[in-house]
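User: Hey, quick favor. My workstation is busy. Could you predict this chain's structure for me?
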Amino acid sequence: MGTVFLGFLGVVGVILAWVAGLYNRFIKLKNNADESYSGIDVQLKRRYDLIPNLVETVKGYASHEEGTLTKVVEARNFAMGVSKGDLKSQAEAENALTGTLKTLFAISENYPDLKANQNFLDLQGQLSTIEDAIQNARRYYNAVVKDYNILCESFPAVFIANIFGFSKRDYFDISDSERENVKVKF
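Assistant: No problem, here it is.
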C-alpha cells in the first residue's frame, strides 16, 4: 500500500511539474509578445511625432497640395486613435498612413526647392530610419507570436492553453500593396 501511494504521488508530482513548466513557458512567450509589441508602439510614436514637422516643411513649398497634406494628418490622427488592443485595426491604420506618406513624398518630385531643402532631407532620412525600425520591430513581434501560437496549438500544450485561457494572437501584418517593391526617388 505504501509503495503504491508513493508511486501515485510521484506520478502526480511529475504531472504537476510538467504543467508548471508549460504554464511558465506560456507566461514567458506572452510577456515576450507584450514586450515586442511595445517595441512597435515606441517606433510608431516616433513616426507620429515626426510627421507634423514633415507636413509643415512640405506645406511651405507645396501649399496648393493641401488635400494631400490633410490626408497625411488625418491618417496620422486616425492611426494614433486606434485602440492598442485592436491589432488588426492598428495594422490597417498604419498601412493607410504609410500610403499617404508615399503620396506626400511622390508630390515632392514636383518641387525641386523642396527636394533640395536640408530640413526636408533630414526629416526624410529620419523617417526612413524609423520605417526600418518599425519593420524590424514588426518582424520580431511576429516571430515571438509565431512561437507563442505554435505552443498554443501544439499537443499536449493545447490542453494547458485552454485551461489557463491562453489563446492565439494576431500577427502585425502589412497590406498587400506594401508587399510590392515601390521605389520613390528624391
